[in-house]
Design brief:
The complex is a heterodimer of chains A (about 300) and B (about 325). Chain A is mainly alpha-helical and about 300 residues long. Helices cover about 70% and strands about 0% of the residues of chain A. Chain A has one domain: MetI-like fold (Orthogonal Bundle), CATH 1.10.3720.10. Chain A is built from 11 helices and no strands. The two termini of chain A are about 40 Å apart. In chain B, the strands form 2 sheets. Chain B has an 8-stranded mixed sheet, sandwiched between helices. A 4-stranded antiparallel sheet of chain B has the order 2-1-4-5, covered by helices on one side. The longest helix of chain B is centred in the middle third of the chain and has 18 residues. Chain B has 9 helices and 12 strands. In chain B, strand 11 and strand 12 form a beta hairpin.
Chain lengths: ~300, ~325
């Protein structure tokens, strides 16, 4: 038999995978690009400031207490003569560290809990999901405060508290996606070829939930930065003298500072708002880029 | 006579209602028994909801049967443990109905075709790629398809990729679940011919599921007619089309359109729909729609018995034979 229907001459220059096409769409998104334009310099500045900025975050300059922005201290100095710019950068570093670590942990937990309940059978599923229900019905603020008061202050406990709070929603989404995936023909085909759980999870599960994971992780990083700031503001997150955007705001809480030394709260506040906004833009960009319907146009 | 390659005995699949809801047990398959001799193609026909796909998947243990035996080359695969079953799987493969759902959108064709070899840990990386390329050539697709994604192919091409995937493991037995029903008629012939060629060339034993009686007549040696999870009639292909004995088979065959307008045959139109497998009729399940049903049909489940050489039917009425 001869086959005439094969068209090999189609103009396919470089075949792009679904991930590549999603990234292309991401870079076409104006808000996402704006987010990146803000975010990338912030990340670079925060991670390299110690190389080019003369002051350390805890170095005290006794001649410059509560001084406004100047050539020496670009963003002024605080009540004990510490440079606000250096603390802002250090605070950013801590905030990012806490956010990235806690999101990484909660993403891993969320993925595996979702995977366990979708592939583990009815009993495992019911048990895991009742736990998720429980975690989701607790009022987050109170849960956070209780956890934080048990775990204590510092970087590691803060990461722990934030990551424990944020996985349940993700595990729900992963579970739903994997349950649908489980019945898809190509997964059944893999089972028919003898695939075990690790193969199904990492060759099929992970690539087909990567969109959920990326979107969740980006948006959750913004959320984690806010949570960290909130906790530190309440004195439960990062404890002084270590800097964080939240505890910088906390230290600048008195009426005198608010009225007379606005640079002490304005800059950390602005950094917080801008960074979170930029990350949200990027996260929204990812979400739009991964939307299956956007493949249609 | 040689022992059959695949022998299914009293295969039954019941779906129990979920733990917190009270509902009837859905009897998807009830006491299905049939044999497939080595190298032959057995067709499975029946309308939607008759349990064709359930049989196809249960035979490969993609669905766990409730009871029954599936003897694969003399070995009961229902009793196999996880490790043995995994090794067994390289001998039996499945071809899916929907060419758009059966290929992962996130894998290249090369990855799809080497997946089975990866899972079964057969050969080195280079050998796997080589075997995948051979399979691609066997289904008459260009070699440059290897690094492309499934979405770049048409339905017929995708279906051939699905066939290639089933072939990479060099199985002895293939279940083809309506492999052409999602394709255009012009492409159907291509794919059917390809499947037929491969089956003959590789000596494959095949269970061919379809609701298209013309396709079944063309490719199958023996045909099984299924209704509501039970076998109604089994006969060699030519015999079934020439001398259908079961009223259900006759109704099905009378629905095939004839290309010759001068032969007017009587259409026998079945009334109503297939009953719910959750609440099947007593006795013969077909009696509610059977034009020849008598009172006795409600009382006994008709046994599948041989009426002539290789021709089996499950009907108590012998007097209606045409």
């Amino acid at each position: 038999m001869t086959v005439a229907g094969i068209n090999t001459a189609e103009p396919v220059h470089k075949t792009k995978g679904p991930l590549r096409r999603a990234l292309d769409r991401f870079f076409e998104n104006r808000a996402a690009r704006a987010g990146l334009i803000i975010l990338v310099p912030v990340l670079i500045a925060v991670s390299t400031y110690h190389l080019w900025w003369p002051y350390g975050p805890n170095a005290i300059d006794l001649k410059a207490m509560n001084k406004g922005p100047s050539a020496a201290h670009w963003l002024g100095s605080d009540g004990v003569g510490r440079d606000v710019f250096a603390r802002l950068m250090q605070g950013g570093r801590i905030s990012m560290l806490v956010a990235v670590c806690s999101v990484a942990i909660s993403t891993v937990i969320g993925f595996f809990v979702g995977a366990a309940s979708s592939f583990g059978g009815r009993v495992v599923d019911a048990t895991a999901m009742r736990f998720v229900d429980l975690a989701m019905t607790l009022p987050p603020v109170i849960f956070l405060l209780v956890l934080a008061s048990i775990a204590g202050t510092g970087i590691a406990p803060t990461i722990l508290v934030i990551s424990l709070l944020s996985w349940p929603v993700l595990s729900r989404m992963i579970r739903a996606r994997l349950m649908e995936l489980r019945e898809r023909d190509f997964v059944i085909a893999a089972r028919g070829m003898g695939a075990g759980l690790p193969h199904l999870l990492f060759r099929h599960g992970l690539p087909n939930t990567i969109d959920i994971l990326v979107v969740y992780a980006t948006l959750q990083i913004a959320n984690a930065i806010l949570l960290e700031a909130g906790l530190s503001f309440l004195g439960l997150g990062i404890a002084p003298p270590e800097a964080s955007w939240g505890n910088m705001l906390n230290l600048a809480r008195s009426t005198v500072v608010l009225e007379q030394y606005p640079w002490q709260w304005m800059f950390p506040g602005a950094a917080l708002v801008l960074t979170v906004l930029a990350i949200n833009f990027v996260g929204d960009g990812f979400r739009d880029a991964f939307d299956p319907r956007s493949d249609l146009n | 006579m040689e022992a059959p390659f695949l022998s299914v005995r009293k295969l039954t699949k019941h779906y129990a209602p979920s733990a917190f809801s009270r509902g009837p047990v859905v009897k998807a398959l009830q006491d299905v028994s049939f044999d497939i001799p080595r190298g032959q193609v057995v067709g499975l026909v029946g309308e939607s909801g008759s349990g064709k796909t359930t049989i196809g998947r249960a035979v490969l243990r993609l669905i766990e049967p409730t009871s029954g035996e599936i003897l694969f080359d003399g070995k009961d695969i229902v009793k196999l443990g996880a490790g043995d079953l995994r090794r067994q799987r390289r001998n039996m493969q499945y071809i899916f109905q929907d060419p758009f759902a059966s290929l992962s959108p996130r894998m290249t064709i090369g990855q799809i075709l080497t997946e089975g070899l990866d899972i079964q840990r057969i050969g080195t990386r280079a050998e796997r790629r080589e075997r995948a390329r051979k399979a691609l050539a066997a289904v008459e697709l260009p070699a440059d398809a290897f690094d492309r994604y499934a979405h770049e192919f048409s339905g017929g091409q995708r279906q051939r990729i699905g066939i290639a995937r089933a072939l990479t493991l060099e199985p002895q037995f293939i279940v083809a679940d309506e492999p052409v029903s999602a394709l255009d008629v012009s492409i159907q012939a291509q794919v059917i011919n390809l499947l037929r060629d491969l089956q003959l060339r590789l000596g494959l034993t095949m269970l061919f599921i379809s609701h298209d009686l013309a396709v079944v007549e063309y490719i199958c040696d023996t045909v099984i007619v299924l209704y509501l999870g039970r076998i109604m009639e089994v006969a060699p292909s030519a015999e079934l089309y020439a001398r259908p004995q079961h009223p259900y088979t006759r109704a099905l065959l009378s629905a095939i359109p004839s290309p010759d307008p001068s032969t007017r045959h009587e259409r026998q139109i079945l009334k109503g729909d297939i009953p719910s497998p959750a609440n099947p009729p007593s006795g013969c399940v077909f009696r509610t729609r059977c034009p020849h049903a008598i009172e006795a049909c409600a009382n006994v489940v008709p046994e599948l018995r041989e009426t002539s050489g290789g021709h089996l039917k499950a009907c108590i009425r012998d007097d209606i034979a045409a």
